[in-house]
Amino acid sequence: MNLPTADELRARVHRALDAIGAPGPLGEPGAPGLPASTPITGDVLFTVAQTDNYEAVVATAARAFPAWRATPAPARGAVVRRLGELLTAHRHDLATLVTVETGKIAAEALGEVQEMIDVCQFAVGLSRQLYGRTIASERPGHRLMETWHPLGVVGVITAFNFPVAVWAWNTAVALVCGDTVVWKPSELTPLTALACQALLQRAAGDVGAPPEVSGLLLGGPEVGEQLVDDERIALLSATGSVRMGQRVGPRVAQRFGRVLLELGGNNAAIVTPSADLDLALRAIVFAAVGTAGQRCTSLRRLIVHHSIADEVSARVVSAYRQLAIGDPFDSATLVGPLIHETAYRDMVGALDQARADGGQVIGGERHDAGQPGAYYVAPAVVRMPSSTAIVATETFAPILYMLAYDDLDDAIAVNNAVPQGLSSSIFTTDMREAERFIDGSDCGITNVNIGTSGAEIGGAFGGEKHTGGGRESGSDAWKAYMRRATNTINYSDQLPLAQGVHFG
Ligand code: UN1
After folding, report:
1. What's the pLDDT tens digit per position in 353-372?
2. Is the Cβ atom of 21 under 6 angstroms away from ligand 1?
3. From ligand 1's centre to the CA of 294, what distance in Å?
4. Where does the record place a coiled coil (predicted)?
5. Does residue 160 line the site of ligand 1, with CB under 6 A?
6. Residue 32: its pLDDT value, please?
7. What is the whole-number distance in angstroms between the Cα of residue 449 and the centre of ligand 1?
8. How close is the Cα of 462 to the center of ligand 1, in Å?
9. What class does CATH assign to 6-263+468-485?
10. Is the pLDDT of residue 23 over 80?
11. pLDDT tens-digit series, residues 421-446
12. Long-range contacts for 319-323 (Cβ within 8 Å, ≥24 apart)?
């Protein structure tokens, strides 16, 4: 396997950070601080200083809030519009950093940056569309209405796999809603975080907005824990594992803070006998192996009608055999490395368990990269006799379990028979089947004739059950970043009481 050297990757990082104007200098590997590593070679490339002033960062964002909430929303949108312009100008630089830190292939890294640009555009439009309702009052000379108000400081915790887009979904929307933001990125992706923060600071400076609206906290899980218990964090938007969400949710609820949770997915697609198989195959392969199976929306379970199960399985296996696995910067590559050794061990463990459960595993072997710390694997297809516990477990790796079904209602029940409820798809040309699936899937995202991943930002993104129930990015997800006030205004000279009550 032909991989870039650690020094070549360092040079790429320097070029990208210089172009973006992100603050240096970066420390040598091994210096005290956060190791900035790459799954491409498994090397530590740099050391990044950890945030040692948590208190000051949060206090600054809290102090900036009153003036920011008093700034008209369309004026707040100007920062986000400028951020979108800077992201457009630097999309290749930022995508380079995403590829270095996550191992995501170049095309997908660029797609992730495009999501940021798209959500900035969405949020700019939103900055002129934050509206409430007026409701018919039961009293004469009265108006009943809803107004929406900023919350305060929004804490954003993001995961390694979408190190920049998820920050942008939250930050672009929170800023136009009048909140200030502090961000705790994954400790695996400090370089992309520095770059995003630098671009936002520049955007604020360019339009004369206070840079204090956005703060960055670089550090380990203990920094996230501080946000969880911090009364000043009005909303904590956290993306990560179900285990993380189970710790975060109740603790924030204990102090009556708000949470927006984007946790795991165990996403399924149903393939019916009427499906356009050429189309389905392309969608299935992208959804299952894109980002090396490390999206929360990755396709993990394929539920195929028994009459076409052998054919679909053979075609998926043959497509998998043609996948180029290797250097994510090589434009021919479709599958880059797993994030780290633990991810690889989890994949091996899941495949062992699937075999023990009677599954037939095709693929899944590690490719020799000539780098002991880099984990390149062939995506695996596993034909399972039935849905066992391992199938119902989210393993963050390219494993696609295949199950056969006879009856569509049973297939929908299998789709729903996992703890998580993020994304789901059906491949069918029968509109009755499509509508039954939309009605029956218990997921936050339910698609027809496209895969489970690759959602557009215009819709609300998120899922049910152990996925956490949060919604972010498009549609009316902005409401999570604001609080609603119900206002009753009496413009008469009488004081009629509601419910017809006479008093005194
Ligand atoms: C994630 O994996 O955390 O729908 C987010 C998708 C992307 C976002 C994934 N737009 O696959």
Report:
1. 999 999 999 999 999 999 99
2. no
3. 9
4. none
5. no
6. 92
7. 18
8. 9
9. alpha beta
10. no
11. 999 999 999 999 999 999 999 999 99
12. 319/281, 319/285, 320/285, 320/289, 320/362, 320/363, 320/378, 320/379, 320/381, 323/285, 323/289, 323/378, 323/379
- Atom index in ligand 1 nearest the CA of residue 115 equals 10
- Tens digits of per-residue pLDDT, 44-64? 999 999 999 999 999 999 999
Instruction: Give the pLDDT confidence of 200-248 residue by residue, as tens digits.
Output: 999 999 999 999 999 999 999 999 999 999 999 999 999 999 999 999 9
What does the mean pLDDT of the chain come to? Answer: 97
Buried b (16+ CB within 10 A) or exposed e, 229-258: ebeebbbbbbbbbbebbebbbeebeeeebb
**What type of residue sits at position 369?**
A
pLDDT at 323 (0 to 100): 98
Q: Tell whether the torsion through CA atoms of 447, 453, 459 and 462 is positive or negative.
A: positive
Is there a common fold for 6-263+468-485 and 267-448?
Answer: no
Check residue 128 and give its pLDDT. 98
Residues 175 and 179: their CA atoms lie apart, in Å, by: 5
Residue 262 CA, closest ligand 1 atom number? 3
- With CA atoms as reference, report the closest residue to 175 among 200, 139, 194, 141: 200
Q: Structural domain boundaries of the chain?
A: 6-263+468-485, 267-448
pLDDT number for residue 1 = 87
Residue 60 CB–ligand 1 contact under 6 Å:
no
Instruction: Decide: helix, strand or coil at residue 118.
Output: helix
Whether domain 267-448 has CATH 3.40.50.720: the reply is no
Helix or strand or coil: residue 451? coil
Q: For residue 504, what pLDDT is reported?
A: 87
Q: Which of 262, 394, 433, 472 is catalytic?
A: 262
Residue 68 makes CB contacts below 8 A (sequence gap 6+) with 76, 150, 178, 179, 180, 210, 213
From CA 158, how far away is CA 395, in angstroms rounded? 18
Q: What is the pTM of this model?
A: 0.97
104 ligand 1 Cβ < 6 A: no
Task: Determine the average pLDDT of the residues in 439-461.
Answer: 98
Residue with tokens 């795991």: 264
Ramachandran angles phi, psi of 238, nearest 5°: -125, 130
DSSP letter string, 74-96: HHHHHHHHHHHHHHHHTHHHHHH
Nearest-atom number in ligand 1 for the CA of 290 is 11
Residue 295 CB less than 6 A away from ligand 1: yes
Find the 302 Cα to ligand 1 centroid distance in Å. Answer: 19
Say if residues 259 and 252 touch (Cβ distance below 8 Å).
Answer: yes
Amino acid at site 354: A
From the CB of residue 307, how many other CB atoms can be counted at a distance below 10 Å?
11
Catalytic residue status for 433: no
**Residue 217 vs residues 243, 340, 342: alpha-carbon distances, Å:** 22, 23, 25
Which residue bears the tokens 């596993």?
A: 382
> Using a 6 Å cutoff on CB, does residue 161 contact ligand 1?
yes
